[in-house]
Design a protein that fits this description.
Layout (H helix, E strand, L loop, with lengths): L28 H20 L11 E2 L10 E2 H17 L6 H14 L10 E2 L5 E3 L4 H18 L2 H14 L19 E2 L1 H17 L2 H18 L10 E2 L13 E2 L1 H16 L9 H11 L1 E2 L4 E2 L2 E3 L4 E3 L2 E2 H18 L2 H18 L10 E2 L10 E2 L1 H20 L1
Antiparallel strand pairs: 1-14, 2-3, 3-4, 5-6, 7-10, 8-9, 10-11, 12-13
Helix pairs in contact: 1-12, 2-3, 2-4, 2-12, 3-4, 4-5, 4-6, 6-7, 6-8, 8-9, 8-10, 10-11, 10-12
Length: 400
């Protein structure tokens, strides 16, 4: 059912374009978790947890709460499946199951090609639009199959993940890692591999199947040996064919959000018992915090260089979630007060993006002058938000 016209526009005293400060109550782990639970369950979930007549989630939602008519990226559909399953796991009592089941049906029936790979986008009528296959899309397909299989009690979705990975084996690159399929590259990128690690870790934890643990260990090793600059501990983004650094400015590009996202993944690997899983986290988090945080706005910015110089001082929403996730995971391991302080700074920085007239939505880009870009809220950010706030809720619960 298409519920896009039932969304309500709620006004408050906020002024468009003005930055907002987080509630003063976000001064402890318990208080931050309570605010996160309220925002997720009472505001965000009812707004985003709905599909249209074709089983597709909104790609974007505008300021009046309406779905923006755009091609539906398969990766966003997969992310939303994860987000809704996670809301259910966390205890939201709304109907997350029906939209998840509808979207899973669409992905498998209309999004899967005859060769077993998945398309890139759906048209607004639910039919395949761009039929090219892409590694980044497939990483999120595997990720959502892990979570949907567990949430819906469907082992067949885990079998579908195995079959998809069997097909992706033909994309292996002789210099390590995977080719990116039919859309991106060259240059080679770390980012799809990061999400393939995230997916393999989720599938290993859901299924216990050894192939997924082996893949997670393999990609983590590739990151240690190729993606991380040994001189600085920072993660770079783009590479030549053999994973050497590009001899251009692009080759020295660092995204603080990705440094922190990898730091969180290595902490997660350490928590699962993989030897030395957390070891690279110190360098990654250290570099991102030293050069990639704007202390005046107290946010993680988009881009810096290996030399630490700022390349883009805009601050998208998603790096704020990775800042929070890394700090929480590092605090669980170290119990250091500075990590807890960093987590609380991160959640307060993130909260500014939520202070918007349409409750449960967000602004996505904070500019260097402290104002936000006015644009529809991208659904792609909800995966980052749910993952970060889930970490917050679980960490706070365990700390009681």
């Amino acid at each position: 059912m298409d519920n896009r016209n039932n969304l309500q526009h709620k006004d408050d005293d906020s002024k468009t374009g003005q930055t907002m400060t987080a509630p003063a109550a976000l001064d402890s782990l318990a208080a931050a978790a309570a605010a996160a639970r309220r925002w997720l369950f009472e505001e965000a979930a009812p707004l985003w947890c709905r599909t249209d007549a074709h089983g597709l989630f909104a790609e974007q939602i505008d300021a009046k709460g309406h779905s923006v008519p755009l091609p539906h990226r398969l990766r966003v559909q997969a992310r939303q499946i994860y987000a809704m399953c996670e809301l259910g796991r966390l205890g939201w009592d709304g109907d997350w199951r029906s939209p998840v089941e509808a979207c899973v049906r669409t992905l498998l029936a209309r999004g899967r090609r005859a060769d077993g790979l998945f398309i890139h986008t759906f048209a607004d009528n639910g039919e395949p639009l761009d039929r090219r296959a892409d590694l980044y899309d497939h990483a999120f397909t595997l990720f959502c199959l892990a979570h949907a299989g567990r949430a819906l009690g469907r082992d067949d979705l885990w079998d579908a993940a195995d079959a998809t990975m069997d097909r992706l084996e033909s994309w292996r690159h002789p210099k390590g890692g995977f080719r990116e399929g039919e859309i991106d590259g060259p240059p080679r990128r770390q980012n799809p591999h990061m999400h393939l690690l995230e997916a393999s870790l989720a599938l290993w934890q859901a299924t216990g199947r050894a192939r997924w643990k082996d893949l997670a260990v393999e990609i983590a090793s590739l990151c240690r040996s190729k993606f991380i600059d040994p001189a600085t501990g920072a993660l770079t983004e783009y590479f030549v064919d053999d994973w050497g650094r590009l001899g251009t400015d692009e080759g020295a590009l660092v995204e603080p959000g990705h440094c922190l996202e990898w730091a969180w993944l290595f902490e997660r690997l350490g928590e699962t018992g993989i030897a030395d899983g957390a070891q690279p986290s110190d360098g990654l988090a250290g570099f991102a915090r030293r050069f990639g945080l704007d202390r005046d706005r107290d946010v993680a910015i988009n881009e810096i260089g290996l030399d630490g110089r700022v390349r883009s001082a805009n601050a998208r929403l998603w790096p704020q979630t990775e800042r929070l996730k890394a700090a929480l995971a590092r605090w669980r391991r170290t119990r250091r007060n500075d990590e807890l302080d960093e987590a609380l700074l991160a959640v307060r920085g993130l909260w500014r993006y939520f202070e918007i007239p349409l409750k449960g939505s967000w602004r996505d880009v904070l500019k260097p002058d402290g104002t936000f870009v006015e644009q529809p809220a991208p659904a792609s950010s909800f995966y980052h938000i749910v993952c970060a706030l889930s970490e917050l809720l679980e960490t706070a619960d365990a700390a009681r």
